Amino acid sequence: MDALEAIMTRRSTRKFRADAVPEEMLKQVIEAGRRAPSGGNNQTTHLIVIEKPEVLAELPGLVEKEFSQMEIQPDTYKSLKNAINAAKKGGYIFHYHAPVLIVVANKIGYGNALADSACVLENMMVAANALDLGTVWINQLHWLTDHALIRAYLGAFGLAEDETITGGLAIGWPDTEDGLPNRAELPRTGNPVTWVK
Known about the structure:
Elements: H1 3-8, H2 23-34, E1 46-50, H3 53-68, H4 78-89, E2 100-107, H5 113-130, E3 134-137, H6 140-143, H7 148-155, E4 163-172
Antiparallel strand pairs: 1-2, 2-4, 3-4
Helix pairs in contact: 2-5, 3-4
C-alpha cells in the first residue's frame, strides 16, 4: 500500500481480536511514529508501549474510577462527556480490549507537546493501516494526566514527572469478518479548504 492509499483508507477500529501483534510489525509502527516531525527537531515525544495483559486489564478500572467521580458541565466536550457517562455505568474499557496500548507523553510546558505527539500518533496510525492493523486514537489518559492515581500508576511504567500525557493509541487486529480494518470511504463534511490563487 502506498502512502496516499494508507492515508486515504485509514479508519478507526473500536473492536479488536485478542491476538497479539507480532513484535516486528509493532516495531515498524513505533518507528514510523518516531520518524514524525517535531518542533525544532526536539524529538521529546515519549512512547510507553503496554502489551502486558495484567496492565491492560487493571488500567481501565483506574480510568473508570477517575471518570466516574467527574461531573458533566454544560460546556463539557462531547467525547469527555461520553467517557464520564460510560464510567458511571460501569464496565468502561476505554482501550476497546486492544492487545496493545501506546501511551504518548511529552514535556510539561513545551509549547509543541500536543502538535508533536499528534504527528507521532498519525504516523503510527497510517503505518498500522498499511500493515492491516487497526488503531484508534485514545484521549482518556490525556484527560486524566493531572490525576494523581493515573500519574502514579503510569509512573511505575516510565511516565516521568516532567511529562504530560498527550494521547494514546489502541492497536491490534480488527475483529472483522475478514480480519482487515474497515476501509470504507467516509464523506468529508468538515475541514473546509480555501484556495488563494
